[in-house]
Amino acid sequence: MVKQGDEEQLLSFLNAVLAKTECNVLTPIAIIENTKITPDVLGDKSCILDVRAKTADGTKIEIEVQLANEYNMIKRLLYYWSREFVVNLNSGDNYQELPKVIAIGILNFSLLTVPEFHSTYHIWEDNNKKCKLTDDLELHFIDMKKFRKLKNKDIENNPLHRWLSFLNEKESDETIKKVINMDSGIKSADEKMKDLLKDKESLIHYQKREFAITEYNNALLRREEKGIEIGEKRGIEKGIEKGRSEEKLTIAINLKKQGFTPETISKATGIPINEIEDL
Question: What is the pTM of this model?
């Protein structure tokens, strides 16, 4: 679980991501909240990154890892950005005190049509892309699916390629060993995960979470196929959407019967916690 003392690996990862926009976080960084990291995600590599943080100059950073496509990621990341932007502004405060916020989404699916695995977004004037309205909004999307297909990964010279290779569960053991030896931040992250997985309780939670994710993804696939059949009569898009909604509810009920927490079920299905509690 991410906590104070884990800043080294977080800073290393952030500098690798933000190099694209020449916004390296070279100042000290503080982990300010970790509400999403609960015992049921211990042992998963995403637990290193799914956090909120703040730099010494006041910049806030939100990192969200999404394993399954819930078809809401763009608005979800914008919501995280807006929450961080205004959370500490009180009545009568100066608007100039509002911070720059960087939101980073690490996705295990393809979301955007751009060919690059790493895309960034700001607010620009429509007819003059050199005119940036403000630097306060910065969004990053990292597509792990596209990264896996990338040929000639440059782990020797590109820190982000090293980090994403480390986070790629399909990467070869040889490459993993190389990136660990190349980068002190990655080495620190690897040591932490090994310590977590030595704990029997953490390992059990990890296995339960892996089961929930697999169950969810397989069920979505089955329901999408059924949704397509329904869609022939009512419209393919509407049929798929209905199928996903019904399957999520079924999965949530089954997971609740098996003793999963509402937080874990919400993470796996996208259903709000209060609705899960009412099931």
Answer: 0.68
